[in-house]
Design goal:
Length: about 400
Amino acid sequence: MSETTEKTSGTPTGDPDMVNPAINQRIVSPWMFPLSGGWRMLSALGKLTFTILFILVLHTLDTAIFLVNLVWPSRSAEALVPGRYSPENPPPFSQRPLTWVLCCLESFLGDRLTPTWITYITHWEGIGHDGRWEHSFETPPQGEGATWSRCPCPAINAMANHGIIPRDGRHITPIQLAAAVHNTYNLSLTLSIQLLAAFYPFYLERGWFDIEDLGGQGVIQHDGSFLREDVNSPWAFPTVIGTQARPSQRLIERYFPASNTKDYTWQNHSAILAHRRADSRNHNGTFVLNPLQYVFSSGNSALIHEVVGGKMHELRPWIGANEYGWEMHIDGFQPKCKQGWGMSILQLQIWTAIIELGAGSLSGPRFPYKNDIDAYQGWNADQAKAGAEVN
Ligand code: HEM
């Protein structure tokens, strides 16, 4: 290594990645603070205004959808998951008016002038139409060189496993996922957009994301999930904890056992949440569940309840209790929410509140660190050998 490299990089190794910013970075003059601070404050205010406007518009439209759904006829089994359509062969106007308009617009503009986000909405392969799913199911390749991306959400994994979104789960744009979730699960357009909006940091700059991005623990994925292990649990499979890609068969058998023959109701989902949160908090010394994560967590239970329903023979394969260990739709599956304009945000919020209130407040002891022996016996102590008891 030359002497020059050592001097300019400020590190003995000369590795540019090892540059010490405290020594090498340009010194900022304090006179710049009012200018840069003022600019940052203005830009933050702009973002806040945009967010408030976005929420207002989305929720006003959604309230309209909620009210219209009360009188509009439900979707027929035929129309629930639409058949194949494209600009040349648009869906019936009466069933999907917005898609029909966009199909006509694309036909008029032609391929070159149509923005890509429109083409995501105007093309649909018809997978799942009339409850036909299984022919399209493929499991992600495993082992060395396996590069498919999967995430903690059974709904998104199932869509990737069936090829409704790209099977490798990579370079997904928010509109693409919103359009897919709208058609696959009969969610309203407003709800499909809202579910994606919460994840904007993942795609804001690039315009796309890999679905595994959703698995960053502590962001949206959280401790006390009922289908995924906490990352420091001894049952967390070491290759999966980074992305939370695979369901935990241990948790599935605990909360959705094969032996159960009764259909699940919202009370069952509340009971699962209450038990899982308390159990996780009691064993995990670093247990965190912030208020937003409470809402995500009961929102997921509300989605299962309203979209997948309580029948074990559909629910279990959907969460990954099958010979493959991956989320799938069985033949005959259809979303249980059949509203003419799809399930609205308001409807989901009502069910989220019911299930959250049913779960009650988190009670029971937090994992106690009284001494080294306690710490040794806790899940944290198992980090080094995480995955010893594999999924
Ligand atoms: C585009 C829409 C969606 C996005 C971006 C999304 C995202 C996520 C994320 C990040 C998680 C992990 C965090 C957590 O456990 O709270 C998750 C979990 C989950 N999602 Fe989704 N989701 C979407 C749609 C759906 C739909 C339509 C359903 C139901 C039909 C659903 C059901 C669930 C369930 C059951 C879990 C697991 C909860 C747990 O293990 O505790 N999601 N989702």
